[in-house]
Write a structure and sequence with these properties.
alpha/beta, binds manganese (II) ion, Arginase, manganese ion binding, EC 3.5.3.1, arginase activity, manganese
Length: 308
């Protein structure tokens, strides 16, 4: 797909900190549109979706701001689905990661419509596989993967028209380094494929990505859900929940370039960028740089592939 649509979802209703609502504008200020247009893509910026304000309440029955999160996700679902139907590659500019529910349920619906299989790369410091029983906080940005797999309030699990929206085997989680105890058990129980930071430390990004991308074919839709907190906080301070020990700049670039090499990416989320915590927009600039790599920008100067 050479046609790309930017969709801003300026909200932090699912987050534990305020500020991810400013993420879409920060990426625009960092030059996302121009950077993609320079890659020869047909880029349209659909502007920002509108939705309820953040009421900043405490959780009720295990969820914080459930009504608002549902409404935002419904709008994200509709917007993503519309772009996919028009054979455009949607880029969701978050916004907190709870919006992955609307985004990925739309992608899954599109795959059902078109008879494709779906592979999801979840680049994140966290597994985001909490449920209201497991989550101490009730913040729904810690729950999107569980909701997509059918574990969560029905208002959220049914957004894409099928419950569950996805199967755990379709997901590859990469860069994980912070998982709650109960969540960890649940991740194992459901058989999620997790390439955590220790795995990356031991085998390196190259082999990790080869494994995560194994088995794609020309009927596979590849969705990338990129939580900016995936990156090491040294290079990406502008996120709500920084966890040390993430991928370096070069490691992140290699991840993105290897995804680009597959030629299969059909949709993308860029989530949890928080300009209120950033330093002179550097995390947004970095996010744009990495998105360019996802679309094939590379410094490749070599004649031969490196030995295996
Ligand atoms: Mn996340």
């Amino acid at each position: 797909m050479r046609a790309v649509s930017l969709i801003g979802a300026p909200t932090d209703v699912g987050a534990s900190d305020r500020g991810a609502s400013m993420g879409p504008e920060a990426m625009r200020v960092a030059g996302l549109h121009q950077a993609l247009a320079q890659r020869g893509l047909d880029v349209v910026d659909r502007g920002n979706l509108a939705g309820p304000a953040n009421p900043w309440q405490t959780p009720s029955s295990g969820y914080r701001h459930l009504r608002e999160v549902v409404e935002w996700n419904q709008r994200v679902h509709d917007a993503m689905y519309a772009e996919l139907r028009h054979e455009r590659l949607p880029i969701l500019l978050g916004g907190d990661h709870s919006l992955g529910i609307g985004s990925i349920s739309a992608v899954a619906r599109h795959c059902r419509d078109t008879g494709r299989s779906l592979r999801i790369l979840w680049l994140d410091a966290h597994a985001d596989f909490n449920t209201s029983e497991l989550s101490p906080s009730g913040n729904i940005h810690g729950m999107p993967v569980a909701c997509l797999c059918g574990f969560g309030p029905s208002e959220l699990t049914r957004i894409g028209g099928a419950v569950p929206a996805i199967q755990p085997q379709w997901i590859r989680q990469i860069g994980i380094r912070s998982v709650d105890a109960g969540e960890k058990r649940f991740v194992h129980e459901q058989g999620l494929e997790v390439f955590d930071m220790r795995f990356i430390d031991e085998v390196g990004v190259r082999q990790t990505m080869e494994m995560a991308l194994e088995g794609l074919d020309d009927r596979t839709h590849l969705h990338v859900s990129f939580d900016v907190d995936f990156l090491d906080p040294e290079i990406a301070p502008g996120v709500g929940t920084t966890i040390p020990g993430g991928p370096t700049y070069r490691e992140a670039q290699l991840c993105m370039e290897m995804i680009a090499d597959t030629g299969r990416m059909g949709s993308l989320d860029v989530m949890e960028l928080n300009p209120a915590l950033d330093v002179r927009n550097r995390t947004a600039v970095l996010a744009v740089d990495l998105i360019e790599s996802l679309f094939g920008k590379s410094t490749l100067m070599r004649k031969h592939a490196p030995p295996r």
